[in-house]
Specification:
With 416 residues, this protein is of the alpha/beta class. The protein has 2 domains: 270 residues, Type I PLP-dependent aspartate aminotransferase-like (Major domain) (Aspartate Aminotransferase, domain 2), CATH 3.40.640; 132 residues, Aspartate Aminotransferase, domain 1 (Alpha-Beta Complex), CATH 3.90.1150. It has 14 helices and 12 strands. The strands form 2 sheets. A 7-stranded mixed β-sheet has the order 1-7-6-5-4-2-3, with helices on both faces. It has a 5-stranded mixed β-sheet with strand order 8-9-12-11-10, with helices on one face. The structure holds pyridoxal-5'-phosphate. Pyridoxal-5'-phosphate (PLP) binds next to helix 4. Belongs to the trans-sulfuration enzymes family. One of its GO terms (biological process) is transsulfuration. It comes from Alteromonas sediminis.
Length: 416
């Protein structure tokens, strides 16, 4: 059935997005997995026109494919942006974008509570002469205090992992807008419908599609979406070549050419398909994960073998009321500290259903001791600044039945 009906509900949109946005041939409901590296043209002039952007098409699959474009349309629709670029991983989206937009002598204000690999990438950027100031982004006055004449932007995450600090998003957005700074937000932890980046003034929103959006631990991918809030004519480093007629596309054009094309972290077509299928059930999965996480957080918070629970949904969380305002639910990640003397490794080994693994946003519930794994490369002092204790365990809550999860944690805690 063809339809001109535009769905309004979040899940309705996701379920029909591939069909309605990409119009696959023969009424297929999925964009086909397009594997060709090269593209043939009827005549040489067509090839030249596509190269020069005068005609729409593909020239070489590192730069674009039907599969990646289809997912870009769907990710962009998710964020109501002015365009998206997909990459092979979330890290590729972040690194390629920042390398495409920054240059030596620039300054960035960056959250001191960051995903470990992003934090590591910023230390690489600083080796190339890009100055980084790390601040506590739970209070926007720290951001304002770090401002310099050469500041280009502010980078943070919505809910940081593993300690779940929540950024002062509204005030950071206002500060960025007043000072013509890029507001760069990693929204991996709170994908729509949990958080809407565009109405919150975000310039570029980054997402690891590998996590909640894919959801099934079967494909890597990342994306950057331009929310359309930033006036690129104010940005000093858009090369004249990329100052295209549509000014909303200046940033994305440079990201696509200097980031995706030149750095080459292209999303694989099979991955694009798997991520697009995952996105259809995004709201159902994330809502269930958040409900399970809330129940587990309350259970663990009341347990006598647990010293501390970090979860924005708990009333004692320092940014609980801010989280209530910003997010539809409180997310699917929580971290715990066991009581002194309890061995976190023994506890993890005592869990039977929960997987001991480093990933998040998966259908399955996962547990990880963070200090000796993902933050192993950081010094004890750096971990302390991020609020990470040596015995902290991060939990990524899945979609299982909550009784099964509570039973597993209960029996695991009973054994230590
Ligand atoms: C996982 C993650 C990334 C990196 O994504 P990959 O797809 O694994 O490269 C970036 N930011 C956050 C917050 C993440 O959790």
């Amino acid at each position: 059935m063809s339809s001109n009906h535009v769905p309004k509900g979040f899940t309705t949109k996701r379920v029909h997005a591939d069909r309605l946005l990409n119009r696959p041939q023969h009424g297929a409901v999925h964009e086909p997995i397009t594997k060709s590296v090269l593209f043939d043209f009827d005549n040489a002039q067509d090839l030249i026109d596509v190269f020069q952007g005068k005609k729409v098409g593909h020239v070489y699959s590192r730069s674009s494919t039907g599969s990646a474009n289809a997912l870009q349309n769907m990710v962009n629709d998710l964020e109501s942006g002015v365009g998206a670029v997909c990459f092979s991983t979330g890290m590729a989206a972040i690194s390629s974008t920042l390398l495409a937009l920054l240059k030596q002598g620039d300054h960035l204000i960056v959250s001191q509570f960051l995903f470990g690999n992003t934090n590591s990438f910023f230390s690489t950027l600083s080796r190339f002469g890009i100055e980084i100031t790390y601040v506590d982004v739970t209070d926007a006055s720290n951001v304002a205090a770090a401002y310099q004449a050469n500041t280009r932007g502010v980078f943070c995450e919505t809910i940081a992992n593993p300690v779940t600090q929540v950024a002062d998003i509204e005030r950071i957005a206002a500060f960025c807008s007043q000072n013509r700074l890029l507001f760069l937000l990693d929204n991996t932890m709170t994908p729509a419908p949990l958080f809407e980046a565009k109405p919150h003034g975000v310039s570029l929103v980054f997402t690891s599609l590998t996590k909640y959006i894919g959801g099934h631990a079967n494909a890597l991918g990342g994306a950057v979406v331009d929310c359309g809030n930033y006036d690129w004519t104010q940005y000093p480093h858009i090369l004249p070549l990329y100052q295209v007629a549509d000014k909303t596309q200046w940033g994305l054009t440079q990201i696509r050419k200097r980031g995706l094309r030149d750095m080459g972290a292209t999303l694989a077509p099979e991955a694009a398909h798997a991520l697009a299928v995952g996105m259809e059930t995004l709201s159902l999965r994330v809502t269930k994960m958040c409900k399970n996480a809330y129940e587990l957080a309350r259970f663990l918070d009341a347990h006598d073998k647990v010293k501390a629970v970090y979860y924005p949904g708990l009333e004692h969380h320092p940014q609980h009321s801010r989280s209530d305002k910003l997010f539809k639910h409180f997310g699917g990640i929580l971290s715990v500290d066991l009581v002194d003397g309890a061995d976190p490794v023994a506890f993890l080994d005592a869990l039977s259903l929960v997987l001991c693994a480093t990933h998040l946003g998966d259908n399955r519930t996962l547990a990880l001791p963070v200090a000796p794994t993902i933050f192993f490369e950081n010094s004890a002092q750096e971990r302390a600044e991020m609020g990470i204790t040596d015995t902290m365990i991060r939990l990524s809550i899945g979609i299982e039945d909550s009784e099964d999860l509570i039973n597993d944690f209960a029996q695991g805690l009973a054994k230590i």
